[in-house]
Amino acid sequence: NPAPRGPGMKQWLEALPFRVSGVLAYSDPFALPIVEEVLRLTGLTESGNATEAARLEQARRNKHTMQIVLKEAGLASSRMTLARTPTEVATFAQAEPSKQVVVKPFVGGSAGNNVTLLDYGQQIAQAEDVVQQIFSCRPAGAENFPILVQERLEGDEYARSEE
């Protein structure tokens, strides 16, 4: 059962057959309020280290920083790069065994929004066109922001929808 929102969440957490020892939310804006409430209720934000707390707060809102935090914690995470040009995207993709990569906006996008799978092995021209469009259509103020490029991981894909 999903966690209840509001006052019932504390009782729900206490009734779990395990202790919550950490929370990962990536940068899903729908999940962040729930995650932050769970962190507050479980005391996981009270490490006493203000610098680390601020870094984890940033990681929950930044896909690239989250991947770095995962790697530093010894958890599996995807190969990645921040690309500032279409050439950097293509170079990373060509080095991948599958030649397939996922591109994500540096800011914004969650639950699959603005996330694109590119195939530089079978559909090079199409991949290059999509990347060119991504770089030419960044919103005002984000023209110099890189995009996150990650290896394509095999397996089930999940996305949350606010229907």
Quick synopsis:
This protein is α+β, with helices and mostly antiparallel strands and 163 residues long. It is built from 6 helices and 4 strands, in the order H-H-H-H-E-H-E-E-H-E.
Question: What would you say this structure looks like, in words?
Answer:
The protein has 163 residues and is of the alpha+beta class. 38% of the residues lie in helices and 12% in strands. It contains six helices and four strands; from the N terminus they run H-H-H-H-E-H-E-E-H-E. Strands 1-4-2-3 form a four-stranded antiparallel beta sheet, with helices on both faces. The protein is elongated, with a radius of gyration of 18 Å. It starts with 7 loop residues before the first helix and ends in a 12-residue tail after the last strand. The mean pLDDT is 77.
Biggest sheet character: 4 strands, antiparallel
Report strand order across the widest sheet. 1-4-2-3
The coarse overall form would be: elongated
Category from helices, strands and their pairing:
alpha+beta
N to C succession of SSEs: HHHHEHEEHE
Summarize the amount of helix as a percent range.
25-40%
